[in-house]
Design goal:
Radius of gyration: 18 Å
Largest sheet: 8 strands, mixed
Oligomer: single chain
Helix content: 10-25%
Shape: globular
């Protein structure tokens, strides 16, 4: 049986807002290379889609843009989950034909490609191995970083790359944080995610419903770092889906009790679910909460 880790009652990311320095340059990249379509666009904003109806990623051009750098919190990478190994093989062939340099890794639970957009925003494109093959011990899932074997991936390709396939979703989001302990307390004690894997004292992975991770957190380049300015490229916000208004009210109360300012974010995306409320995590990263599945 296929398990859907990206539907209620699990908590998962439904939309990511990225700040970019040049909207047209980024649109060229995300459409012609990554394979999104443009759903909606104006002079400063664009919503990207894979199904022509919903959007999982939006781009915002910022004036006098400042580049990403070390010691800044925010995005480590967005992770696009493809439906099948055939789809991964097709996009690998596409990257080869375009002479695009990519990174790659076998994480045991998944097979992943890595690259960066024109502003240095990290992108992972991956497929999951069957959840029945994942190894768990003491509520921790085995994840590794090993060389990816491209042979079976390319063997599964059918040469029919026509952009990102329908069914592509945000599999997870990986964040650069300033303090791993404070971040863990926020995401687990306040938001009720579960720690499912740790990489030493510099990274951890959290999820709900037994997924290998809905959110990754690390301090590899951002330990004791600062919140970026509004002019920095990178993450503007990401949206988390909550099960219902009862759960949303409980999260709201826990955030308030923990001393976080719960508010309405004026620049929330149009897609990804109507905003229920918003908060900044201990790293200054903007989270939006919705109870809409889309």
């Amino acid at each position: 049986m296929t398990i859907n880790f990206h539907q209620k009652p699990n908590m998962y990311a439904s939309h990511i807002q990225l700040k970019v320095s040049n909207l047209q340059q980024s649109l060229d990249y995300y459409t012609s290379l990554i394979g999104f379509q443009i759903l909606q666009q104006d002079e400063q904003n664009a919503y990207l889609t894979v199904d022509g109806m919903t959007s999982i990623l939006s781009l915002i051009e910022v004036e006098n843009a400042l580049p990403l750098g070390n010691k800044l919190t925010g995005l480590y990478h967005i992770a696009l989950l493809l439906p099948s190994r055939k789809d991964l093989g097709n996009i690998v062939q596409h990257f080869v034909q375009r002479n695009i340099r990519i990174g790659a890794a076998d994480h045991y639970v998944s097979e992943a490609l890595y690259l960066n957009d024109p502003d240095g925003n990290g992108i992972e494109i991956y497929i999951d191995r069957p959840a029945s093959n994942w190894q768990w011990r003491d509520n921790q899932v085995k994840m590794v970083t090993e060389q990816l074997n491209f042979n079976p991936i390319l063997a599964a390709a059918d040469g029919q790359w026509n952009g990102l396939p329908k069914g592509t979703i945000i599999g997870h989001i990986h964040l650069s944080v300033a303090d791993l302990e404070k971040s863990e307390q926020f995401y687990t004690n306040v938001l009720d995610f579960n720690v499912v894997s740790r990489y030493g004292k510099q990274a951890l992975f959290i999820s709900t419903g037994g997924y290998h991770h809905h959110i990754g957190l690390n301090t590899w380049h951002s330990e004791n770092g600062m919140k970026p300015s509004p002019n920095h490229v990178g993450l503007q916000s990401f949206t988390i889906v909550l099960e219902n208004d009862v759960v949303a009210q409980r999260v709201h109360e826990k955030l308030t009790a923990a001393g976080f300012t719960v508010e309405h974010f004026e620049n929330a995306p149009t897609y990804g679910g109507a905003q229920f409320f918003s908060v900044e995590d201990p790293n200054g990263i903007r989270l939006l909460f919705t109870i809409d599945a889309e």
